[in-house]
Amino acid sequence: MQIVSRWAYATIFFVCLSACGGGGGSSGSAPPPAPAPTQSPGGIWFGSDSEGDQILALITESGRFHFLELTTGNQGSGTINVSNGNQISTNFRFVPAVGNLFADGSPYSDCSASGTIVERSTLNGTIVCTTSMGSQSSVTVNLAYDARYELGSDLATFAGEWTDSSNPGIDVVNIDSVGAITGQDESGTGCVYSGQVSIIDSTYNAYDVEWTYSSCSGQFAILNGITFSGIGAIDNTVSPIEFTVGATAIIQGDEVSLILTYERTVGACSMAGQKEFVLTAMQDWYLWNNLLPINVNLADYATPEELLAFLTTFSPDDGSGQPIDKFSFIGSAAADAAFFGEGQFEGFGFSSRFVAADDLRLTQVFANSPADLGGLARGQRILELNGRTIAEIQAAEGVSAVFGTSPLTFTMLEPGGTQFISTIAHDIVTINPVPQWRVIDAGGGRMVGYMEFSTFISTADPVFDTVFAAFQANGVNDVIIDLRYNGGGLVSTAELLGDFLGGDVAENLTFSKTLFNADRAAVYNAQEFFERLGNSMSLSRLVVIATSGTASASELVTNSMEPHVEVTIVGDRTFGKPVGQVGFEFCEKILRPTAFQTVNADDFGDYFGGLPVDCVAADDLDVAVGADTDPNMVTALGYLDAGSCPVASLSGGQAKPVIGQNLPQLDRRGRPWREFADAF
Asked: Of 50, 73, 145, 545, which has the highest C-beta tally within 10 A?
């Protein structure tokens, strides 16, 4: 058994040049050169020999090695000596795989090797061997270093069940957290194994391994009492994790080779299985998978969520020293489906934001939600939660954490100055994706369509048809879409909205392009085109009302309409999320890694800093969203009337746009109703 299928190997050939001294030198003496530093031979080394055999060498820092010929299962072991800095030499015995002999019938071959090493880089040399029957051979070997040697060693990594990858489910061993090996071969040999995995040096990925056979029956009884010993290494960059061992033993006076690769068998929903699922999905699908570390020790992370948080730190810098990926998350699969399919989640049913460091206001309250029934309303200020001030909470765990408490007692301040207390418990909240829409007579025969859109969920799809049928029937050419609190959602719903807005004026033209990582691009990169629908309108101008919470699918629609019609952003700069997630369900959870970026027909999609605002307007929390006196509506209608941004003034009750302000931000990462609807 010599399968090491997932260990990639590389061959590097070098021409070694000797420096020669020139003639005619001075007879004066010079100080002898300082001795070259001795190169460490330690490493996991891959490559091939001049006969084409695949080679894996496992070498410890002290030079002890097992030299595995993966093609044949033959193996040599001994100790490498390093002299003169980088010169290597060794004498060792090379033995065939269990049950085999060399071509001339010999049970072993005595070998000598010499060559050079570049520490943590290359190992090259010549091996000369003579079999016990006198046959001689010589090969050159060229090996490259594999950085997985630097994974370190930890016996806790082994805890669990392992199976021989060449005989899965039959040859099974258990290794506990202190390295004790127990197992039994279920193929009919009756053999029982017991042994030990031990750490050689915790800094490096190399383990001493030995095991002894007992209770073997029939022709295999010859193994009883036989102990194999050798060196092994973990590969935790594959799923399932693999452990490769090169070991030898003396059977009836002859040394024999055994090369094994075991893979860990884990229940799909064990903690180890979940972490392996997340790592594999991220390596395959993550938009920035080329930036992920090659070596990830899953034992370092207690949960798949903790592992995901670590992996996202390798996304590009956002310009402030922080990773740009604030979007990948793991959540409940059932809750995810309920939100995107029915607009439902369990919570209080409100959104809020800071307008000052200790001034937290409600921006929206969803109809018939626990918050609505408890008397909470837009514009109210939260003074205390369970008797603690906002300042106290922010100095401790933060408001977002406290909103996870149910029931929760709110001390509220109304805009008129009245205080009240309300105790509210979490319950099912159903979001109306289109809370309001209307046709506005802008004068002079101009009709303007207005639609407030809360989040991109599938329940919005049938509403669009009703809204745009009315827009079309009333001769609407200019549309105001209010996305001020819309954090995005389903790309399919964004594409549908694009068809209603642009299907007439941009039919069959590019709406957007979806770009995956280099490993997925050939199959999954896609281009979405505008499709004319029955109620697609003849759009001239689009005004988008936005805040810093306008994100993702909201920005996708805004950016994708830009090349085709006049688009104006009113309010504030958007959030800046030109990327999206895909979903992978596992163990009643869903992993949504950031997996693609979108660009428009002009190939523009680099707006991680947000789409810039054209006409600044305040979000007055004392005025209902979309009301005639709403500053965003005044500005939007003023722009459509004059073709330029009107001069705006702020009343005392208005919340200024957050551009340039450094205010506390509520955590929107994770649960879809937080990211896409800004809802608690």
From this structure: 545
Contact 485, 351 (CB under 8 A): yes
Pick one of 2.30.42.10, 3.90.1680.10, 2.30.30.30, 1.10.3720.10 as the CATH number of 346-429: 2.30.42.10
**Confidence (pLDDT) at 668:** 65
pLDDT in tens, 400-434: 899 999 999 999 999 999 999 999 999 999 999 99
Q: Which CATH number fits domain 1-10+36-157+227-263: 2.40.128, 1.10.1390, 3.40.50, 3.30.67?
A: 2.40.128
Rounded distance between C-alpha atoms, residue 9 and residue 430, angstroms: 55
Contact 207, 198 (CB under 8 A): yes
Is residue 378 helix, strand or coil? Answer: coil
Strand partners, 409: 423
> How high is the pLDDT of residue 653?
38
DSSP structure class, residue 342: H
Q: d(Cα 361, Cα 527) in Å, to the nearest integer?
A: 41
What's the rounded Cα separation, in Å, for the pair 97 and 73? 5
Q: How high is the mean pLDDT of the chain?
A: 88
pLDDT at 269: 78
Q: Which residue, 121, 115, 139, is CA-closest to 49?
A: 139
Determine the average pLDDT of the residues in 560-575: 96
**pLDDT tens sequence across 44-54:** 999 999 999 99
The Cα 265–Cα 269 span in angstroms is: 12
Q: What is the pLDDT of residues 128-175, one digit of tens each?
A: 999 999 999 999 999 999 999 998 888 877 777 888 877 655 677 888
**pLDDT of res. 305:** 94
pLDDT at res. 27? 38
Q: What is the 3-state secondary structure (H, E, C) of 467-522?
A: HHHHHHHCCCCEEEEECCCCCCECHHHHHHHHHHHHCCCCCCCEEEEEECCCCCHH
Of 418, 236, 338, 401, the closest CA to residue 590 belongs to 338
The whole-number pLDDT of residue 1 equals 26
- H and E: helices and strands count for the chain: 12, 38
Homologous superfamily in CATH for domain 436-576+594-657: 2-enoyl-CoA Hydratase; Chain A, domain 1 (3.90.226.10)
| Euclidean distance between CA atoms 4 and 157, whole angstroms | 19
Rounded CA separation 123/46 (Å): 9
Q: Which tokens go with 124? A: 């090259």
Give me the long-range contacts of 358-365 (CB less than 8 A, separation at least 24): 358/389, 358/390, 358/391, 358/394, 359/390, 360/390, 360/399, 361/621, 361/655, 362/621, 363/485, 363/619, 363/621, 363/678, 364/454, 364/485, 364/625
